[in-house]
Amino acid sequence: MNVQYWIDPRDKPGLLRVMMNTLAGDAHISFEGDLSRCVFPEHLKPSGDATETLRRWDGTRKDFVVLPLEPDAVAPILDVVLPERRYLDDIIHIQIERLGKMEFASYDNFHRQCVMCYAGVETALLDQLKSSGVIRSWERASAD
Question: What was the pLDDT predicted at 61?
Fold first, then answer.
């Protein structure tokens, strides 16, 4: 079972930046929502195909894209999703997988009850994010 942590974000673009940089390498990121203003560089080879780990969530079948998340891809991706609050206003769901395992997810426009990370994100990092004000709090999800 994959350990899960609930995160209450304060600085949403800061949290996205940290998670992308932390998880980059042998990873992929997906965005779902109205991606009409999100033109990703072709060299990143954007794909509209869901993977076993990164799936579509919106029942209305909004736009969906999966991109490789390597260290050199972080800045070009952020250059597309951060301007004009696209990461929050246009994009509904963001997911990051690394080595085939879900490691970060933000659903419902970073709704405070819908942001989580998994075992690939160390609790020491979550503590740092809390002390720096990027997140308000984090807690381990209770086992079902």
Answer: 76
Q: Give the domain extent around 115.
A: 4-140
Distances (CA, A) of 144 to 53, 67, 116: 21, 32, 16
C-alpha–C-alpha distance, residues 123 and 118, integer Å: 10
Would the pTM of this model clear 0.90, i.e. be above it? yes
Domains held by the chain: number: 1
Count of residues making up the chain = 144
Amino acid type, 49: D
- Beta-sheet pairing, 91-98 with 115-118: unpaired
Joined together, the tokens standing for residue 60 give 């209305």
**Strand, helix or coil at 35?**
coil
Within 13 Å of residue 121, how many CA atoms lie on the same side as its CB?
31
Closest to 94 measured CA to CA, from 16, 10, 18, 9: 16
Q: Rounded distance, CA 105 to CA 36, Å?
A: 21
User: Is the pLDDT confidence value at 59 over 70?
Assistant: no
d(CA 110, CA 71): 23
